[in-house]
Amino acid sequence: MLLEKIQSPADVKKLSADELKTLAAEIREALVRKVSTRGGHCGPNLGVVELTIALHRVFDSPRDKIVFDVSHQSYPPKMLTGRARAFVDPAHWEDVTGYTEPTESEHDHFLVGHTSTSVSLALGLATARDLKGGDWNVVAVIGDGSLSGGEAFEGLDNAGEYATNFVVVVNDNEMSIAENHGGLYRSLAALRESGGAASDNYFKALGFDYLYVEEGNDVAALEEAFRKVKGTKKPVVVHVHTRKGLGLRCAEERKETFHWSGPFDPETGKPRGEGGENWPDVLRDYLVGKIESDPDVVVVHSAVPVGIGFTEDVRKRVGKRFVDVGIAEEHAVALVSGMARGGAKPVYSTHGTFIQRAYDQISQDLAVNGNSATILVTMSGADGMNDASHLCIFDIPMISGIPNVLYLCPTCVEEFRAMADWAIDQRERPVAIRVPNAVQHRNAAFDADYSGALRYRIEREGAQVALLGLGDFFERAERAADLLAESGIRATVVNPRFASGVDGETLDALAATHELFVTLENGSVAGGFGEHVAARLAARGAKTLVRGLPKEFYDRVPFDELLRRNRLMPEQIAEDALAALGK
Amino acid sequence: MLLEKIQSPADVKKLSADELKTLAAEIREALVRKVSTRGGHCGPNLGVVELTIALHRVFDSPRDKIVFDVSHQSYPPKMLTGRARAFVDPAHWEDVTGYTEPTESEHDHFLVGHTSTSVSLALGLATARDLKGGDWNVVAVIGDGSLSGGEAFEGLDNAGEYATNFVVVVNDNEMSIAENHGGLYRSLAALRESGGAASDNYFKALGFDYLYVEEGNDVAALEEAFRKVKGTKKPVVVHVHTRKGLGLRCAEERKETFHWSGPFDPETGKPRGEGGENWPDVLRDYLVGKIESDPDVVVVHSAVPVGIGFTEDVRKRVGKRFVDVGIAEEHAVALVSGMARGGAKPVYSTHGTFIQRAYDQISQDLAVNGNSATILVTMSGADGMNDASHLCIFDIPMISGIPNVLYLCPTCVEEFRAMADWAIDQRERPVAIRVPNAVQHRNAAFDADYSGALRYRIEREGAQVALLGLGDFFERAERAADLLAESGIRATVVNPRFASGVDGETLDALAATHELFVTLENGSVAGGFGEHVAARLAARGAKTLVRGLPKEFYDRVPFDELLRRNRLMPEQIAEDALAALGK
Known about the structure:
Two copies of one chain form a homodimer. Chain A is an alpha/beta fold. Chain A folds into three domains: 3-261, Thiamin diphosphate (ThDP)-binding fold, Pyr/PP domains (Rossmann fold, 3-Layer(aba) Sandwich); 279-434, Thiamin diphosphate (ThDP)-binding fold, Pyr/PP domains (Rossmann fold); 458-580, Rossmann fold (3-Layer(aba) Sandwich). Chain A has a six-stranded parallel beta sheet with strand order 9-8-10-11-13-12, with helices on both faces. Chain A has a five-stranded parallel beta sheet with strand order 2-3-4-6-5, with helices on both faces. Chain A has a five-stranded mixed beta sheet with strand order 14-16-15-17-18, sandwiched between helices. In chain A, α4 (49-58) crosses α11 (219-229), α7 (118-132) packs parallel to α8 (150-159) and α19 (474-486) crosses α23. The interface between A and B is large, with 121 and 121 residues.
């Protein structure tokens, strides 16, 4: 196998044209085998095989610096930079992360997981090079879908000002995660159709020289283009037309499904493993129901519509009542603020790790204005995603630090529906709802009104110890209380229902009859729910244990291990409570 | 006076061409009088007088919706929509805010203070209109300087996709706050020079129709253009060339100085009032010294270089060692991460209210990567800015929620220099430093090393009560301790030095000998320094009073009143401590 012999880009440079074809085929084979078995980014990586080979044949990495945006195209680059074994040999599949990672290789300059960042990061490398008088090339590789993010624009605009070596490779596979959205994409289409000659060139408008390569999956054509720009003294865009999913029929035909996927049968494209109840389906059914029963409801998403189960058929069904703005979280939040102001009932949804891309917009465009948009923060908690670049544990500190926003944390599907019904209809303020990962059900009655000074709900009355289990960790509080009961302690169990403040009255009342409080949250504790509660209780000198996850960028730690490490298993919670009570 | 009789835009529509000239002159006179006396945004408002008149003559506000970006151009619009008195009559000057404000008028649709947001907000109004079948016009007015912000791009890109009525007026006065930066601005210049005919039109590239108006300070020319686009069924940009500062010589000649200014003599342009020591001067001297003594240091700013005293002469002096990226905070943070990775020593500075525009970049581009950029958060605290849209009190919760970032809080100029010296030279992690507003000096020795597990500094050893005064509030802790001494309590006074975590060892040791802790911080308490401390101490049941500002968008509350309201005056702190001790 050729691939196994590639220790570094120097080995790629030595290959003949025929060998390069073999190498490309082997890369695809390894990719499909690994991704179809354990899941991962499929389509984007299949599309950039030749692009990566050509980059490494023309440029001299790591002396020349190549920065891959969002890293969804990082598997082939890893294979050509000494990490082939992590794709070829199943025993070593877990040796590498799914993203570029400087600790793995000198060819990786940044850990990149969120999108639209490569141009700015690479420009920083170019600026440092110019300060130091270096003469190497700096290359940013960015997908067409990532161009819709404001940070990419800011980087391109700034780079366009400098008369220095800077190459941006636009990997245009005609797709974001789903289809592209935005006027820019008509321009890109016009450029593709005209062989790069169309007028009103976006990249030229920002100050770049421009080169188009139609054969983006042809190593020779790519090499020729890269040789032209190597050593450039001006910023230049190489616009490359690639085919997402190339080499795997199901991925070519169903680009969105195979952007990222769990394990699947590569012959049929059918997913492996069980289905089971999941939040995207719950959210889809709920939101489609809302759209169909209330003409004012609009659902907005930023490029990951499958996060709410809005697959292509659903999108067709609801038409204009669903708006995908592309990768543009800032705009999405400002847009829903405007929609709410205009009398609509907008619901914006994004994953917990991405909501942080719109801090200022939640604060300024939405919360200062008090507009009544609803935000669903999906995949929240440590059981969401567990790559260091995709942790979903910082949303509570972030959102609960912003005035005017009510952050509701339902304990189960039924409570979610009650909260969302109210949030969407009310006109008083922005409301965020934390959608967990685990699908839990509770057979109970839930309030229909969450306005005014929201109160905690005491679900089990006890004494001595009060356990406050936020959202999906409510169940954990109940289980810890069951264990405490075995030790003769009848613990109070509280469903706090919201994280954006505290119910001081309830806390004060409980403090009169309880020696110990334990807060439980599926998120980073620094600035989170538990700290808000502890600060209130500390004024009375009440003992409080704040339990959640430490403020850390942990990488791929299994959920249960993380919980155990941070004493969040029910038996640990009970044990610590007993110890704190001196029992 | 004509202006006093303008009750609504309908009155503007009735005026003759001669009367419009008189009106424009009266608006400018009122503007200059108010702004030169009490300070405010001068140049941007002087430039849009005719633009505002023309907009209100052609469109029918509030039925047609006009959304002004960043509101720096909001004074003339306020004068023409029933709020002239707040500019003409000094007794009513404080009746209106400096920003668009829906509670003031039905012509204002959003409270806007941060920039680059108008397109997205207005598109939300347009989407809601289309849902409801309305036929009014929606107009966003955005300055050329604001176009560099990623959110504006995201909004334009999304809007370019829809076949619906949407007008974007680009008010091009050839300036951001300082000069513009970015390749886009060469395109705008080319459009101005070619009367709108230049190729590679940025707006067309994003899907907009396009119209250029060279005479941006001519009501008739503007009216003609606006009549052409009124009722459009497609998104269209009207690119208007205006003159910033028109009508006031000093503002026309020194556009940057008079973008915003304190009181000044309108004849000479000289500032009124005392100079005195200030942080921009301290920072300028410090940073220029660094640049001149260390070839690796680069200073980066996003459009408000006067915040660090980098006026035009200073910028010329340091040349390429200073980078102004324009209004592009996201890019700025990613850029300095790249610079640090490339071996430079970058220092990025922005105000406390704007750092929140880069939450995700601090987290992902910088902190996950552990790159050693230094961020100076200027004007931090409630004595920074006090408009609801510009509060500088949320930086501690925000930054201290992000892993890997050390947030240092110096108590005085001398400690700032010691911390910054270390931060800039170290290579282990990103460091943010909170630069307060009040210039305080302390005659003491400060550590040269802030690496590893940073410890609190006990500056005065006592018993019973420990006062932890963060940053500029350290002095307040000292004064409260002096008052407590008068009551026979020798309080411990702690300089915590950092807000991004706690020194648990010191807290635990103090808890053994102190009954009460009081934390003091010049910022929002929700998720801030005090809550981190209280959570640690609550595990031991130690009584802690967390003192700072409530999580609120208060508007223009004087600093002392705010402190008194939140029991932050030294005598209130001492009084509350005594009460908590039961004395």
